[in-house]
Design brief:
Layout: H1 2-8, H2 12-21, H3 34-41, H4 61-64, H5 68-74, E1 77-85, E2 91-101, H6 104-109, E3 121-125, E4 136-140, H7 142-153, H8 156-160, H9 168-173, H10 200-203, E5 216-218, H11 235-239, H12 241-244, E6 252-253, E7 256-257, H13 260-268, H14 279-302, H15 315-318, H16 321-329, H17 344-361
Parallel strand pairs: 3-5
Antiparallel strand pairs: 1-2, 3-4, 6-7
């Protein structure tokens, strides 16, 4: 940083640039990525600089201690996505994602009030109550959830969406223990015949498969329609409160809002690994980027007036099945998948690149190195 300040001289604009680059901490040495280095050498503010509004807000400790299931119970949006394990310990998202707005007050009111934070309750969350399977299960701490919900309702984003929390849950379960009267002599302790044994676990030898059916089963999104992630601008800020703490980021670069792809790239490569440690959020961002590309391509295709010297695209032509069939036959309908990996249009473009390289450089030469033992392996050859 000292070298940059010396190089800036008396130029106040360059000095402000150095302060914006070292936005979080004033250090002497720092490692930058290749994209940021090129911008700094040209005395330009990097696109992914945290001073552009990309810095994570400070999250309260009541939110930091929440587990993934507890975070789901205080979130105002529930994201349902199917995550499957893949080869090499990786994870992949299969199918679409569903964004359902829920009531935090209703969700919290379903939990019983316990005396201390050490008490836990087994909770099962389902998409719908008529479904036999559960989306996520686990043990939660009702008191920690209540404290986190009380903190979130005072945050700007929750107040903007008018997310309130009733105190009836706390008042219904708060009761005063009766105090003993000093004039009444204590009765002698009489051992009941049906008293519980001191060590019941030592005598219990069978585990029932029905144990997993106990606990509270809820469907917070019951009776509510899903909302598209493209229309709901605050989906991720309300779905992952442990990341944003009830605040909304508004990144701006050179007077224009940053694209969602740039925001996701900044979150993924950030020195703070709060996002990189959550595969569900990474897969959510990847799916949202894919949907944004599809929406952009569809908007571009709808603005076209003519396709391959055909009739104009209007409402009457789109209602004609023969016209739609002709678009599909000539692959015009698949152009919306341009830029989406593993799609038919993507592999068609990659095939054209390979064929162009063959025409330009000739047939490729295939090299294979085999050991002495592998030469005696007919199946490999």
């Amino acid at each position: 940083m000292s070298h940059l300040l010396q190089a800036s001289g008396a130029n106040e604009v360059r000095r402000n640039l150095v302060r914006n680059v070292f936005y979080l901490q004033q250090v002497k040495e720092c490692i930058f990525c290749k994209a940021c280095v090129q911008s700094i050498k040209c005395w330009k503010q990097p696109r992914y600089c945290l001073s552009n509004g990309l810095n994570f807000p400070v999250v309260d400790h009541r939110l930091q201690i929440l587990t993934r299931l507890e975070e789901r119970l205080v979130a105002a949006r529930h994201i349902f996505q199917t995550i499957w394990p893949s080869h090499g310990g990786q994870l992949r998202c299969k199918g679409g994602i569903v964004n359902v707005p829920v009531s935090v007050d209703t969700t919290v009111s379903l939990l019983p009030h316990l005396t201390t934070d050490a008490h836990v309750v087994h909770v099962r969350i389902a998409r719908r109550m008529q479904y036999k399977g559960n989306y996520i299960t686990g043990s939660v701490r009702p008191n920690c959830i209540w404290q986190a919900a009380v903190h979130l309702r005072a945050q700007p984003l929750y107040q903007f969406h008018s997310i309130a929390l009733s105190d009836n849950w706390l008042m219904q379960h708060c009761y005063v223990h009766p105090t003993a009267d000093a004039n009444i002599e204590p009765e002698e302790d009489e051992e009941e015949e049906d008293a519980e044994p001191l060590n019941p676990d030592a005598q219990e030898t069978m585990l029932s498969a029905e144990d997993g059916e106990y606990g509270i089963r809820m469907a917070p999104g019951k009776g509510r329609g899903p909302v598209s992630v493209l229309l709901d601008e605050d989906t991720e800020y309300l779905s992952f409160p442990t990341f944003f703490g009830g605040h909304k980021l508004q990144p701006v670069f050179q007077g224009h809002p940053l694209s969602y792809s740039d925001i996701a790239k900044s979150f993924a490569v950030r020195y703070g690994r709060r996002v990189a440690q959550r595969p569900d959020y990474l897969l959510f961002m990847a799916k949202k980027i894919e949907l944004l590309r599809l929406s952009s391509n569809i908007s571009l295709c709808l603005r076209k007036r003519k396709i391959r010297n055909r009739n104009d695209i209007n409402a009457s032509n789109l209602s004609n099945n023969d016209f739609i069939y002709g678009l599909v036959q000539h692959d015009d309908a698949y152009s919306v998948l341009t830029g989406v990996r593993n799609s038919c249009t993507h592999w068609h473009n990659e095939k054209q690149k390979v064929l162009a390289m063959v025409r330009q450089f000739g047939l490729p030469t295939f090299f294979l190195t085999l050991s002495a033992a592998e030469t005696q392996w007919p199946e490999l050859l």
